[in-house]
Amino acid sequence: MTQPSDTDAPALTPGLIGRQEVLVSEHNVAHHVQKISTPSMIQAMEQASQLAVLDHLPPEQSTVGFEVNIRHVAGADIGATVVATAELERVDGRWLYFKVEAMDGDRTIGVGTHRRAIITLPPGANSRGGPNDSHTHGA
Predict the structure, then answer these.
(1) pLDDT band at residue 7, thresholds of 50, 70 and 90?
(2) 46, 63, 85, 114: the active-site residue
């Protein structure tokens, strides 16, 4: 993939917020405790981060995650709806810095930070990697 230079980075504004909801089910739990798994929670946080900025990028650009620093502080049972939010805190050229959180109702289940990089997609790419994109991986 071709990487954009700092001058190619769009004017993203700190304070942009993304949100991703996940229904806790048999498909995204740690089976030994029947609670949402840490990888599933982190995936929702990454998706929320992507949603915060994707509509603010030109169609030939997307982002990729490259760093997560997450604490999984509580569980969420099967049937719960976990809401992950991401707030863009800082933009440094093509590097994006997010504060992320996952909630089960009014209870925090995960907190941390996430970093993403703006990329230029290869010619003919049929995916930008958004959370509802059929080409993203599942948890």
Answers:
(1) very low
(2) 46
Domain ranges of the chain: 18-120
Task: Spell out the residues 6+ positions from residue 128 whose beta carbon is closer than 8 angstroms to its own.
Answer: 54, 59, 62, 121
63 is catalytic: no
CATH number assigned to the domain covering 18-120? 3.10.129.10
Integer Cα distance of 136 and 128 in angstroms: 9
Q: Which of 63, 72, 85, 114 is catalytic?
A: 72
Catalytic residue among 38, 101, 113, 136: 38
Least confident of 47-56, 70-79, 84-93, 124-133: 124-133
